[in-house]
Every structure is written in C-alpha cells, then in structure tokens.
Amino acid sequence: MQATKASNQTLWKQFFKDAILDLDPTSAEQKLEAAKKAIEDRLREIHARGGIDHRERMELEDAQRTILFLGKHEQQT
C-alpha cells in the first residue's frame, strides 16, 4: 500500500512537470489537461482517505494555480 501512495504522489508531479516544461504549443494544451486531471485525482484520493499531508496539499494547490495560469496564457496566444 505504501508503494501505491508513493507512486500516486509521484505521478501527479510527473504530469505537472511535463506540462510546465513543454515548449511545443501543439501538445501543451493536452499536457496541461493531463496534469490538471492528475492533480484533481490526487486531491480526491487523499480527501477520500480522510487525511492529508499539509505539505503535499500546498504543493497540489500551487500546481493547480500554475496549471490554471498556464491554461489561460495558452488560450491568449
């Protein structure tokens, strides 16, 4: 069970990194959506368990804000 938790924590971070480091405008939107979904899935997962690491929650919320900002920026260009 611990391995699953660690992999889920790592998964959303990898999607997030892929999205924010993508310089290709043809794939940026898809990667932003994938990161957004991975972040939302992780938030739902930890909420369902009833407990949360406050540091991870702050990281997830920061990542959500960044994805939102980048998504708006992509729409303007």
Helix segment tally: 3
Instruction: Give Rg in angstroms.
Output: 13 Å
Count structural domains.
1
β content, as a range?
under 5%
Helical residues, percent: over 70%
Strands, total number: 0
Instruction: Give me the strand/helix succession.
Output: HHH
Derived structural class? mainly alpha
Q: Termini distance?
A: 43 Å
Uncertain residue ranges:
none
Mean pLDDT: 85
Query: What composes the largest sheet?
Result: none
Which outline best applies? elongated
Could you give a short description of this structure?
With 77 residues, the protein is mainly alpha-helical. The chain contains three helices and no strands.
Q: What's the helix and strand layout?
A:
Elements: H1 2-20, H2 25-49, H3 54-76
Helix pairs in contact: 1-2, 1-3, 2-3
How would you describe this structure to a colleague?
By secondary structure, this protein is an all-alpha fold. It has one domain (2-76). The protein has helices at residues 2-20, 25-49, 54-76. Helix 1 runs parallel beside helix 3 and helix 2 (25-49) packs antiparallel against helix 3. The longest helix has 25 residues, at 25-49. The mean pLDDT is 85.
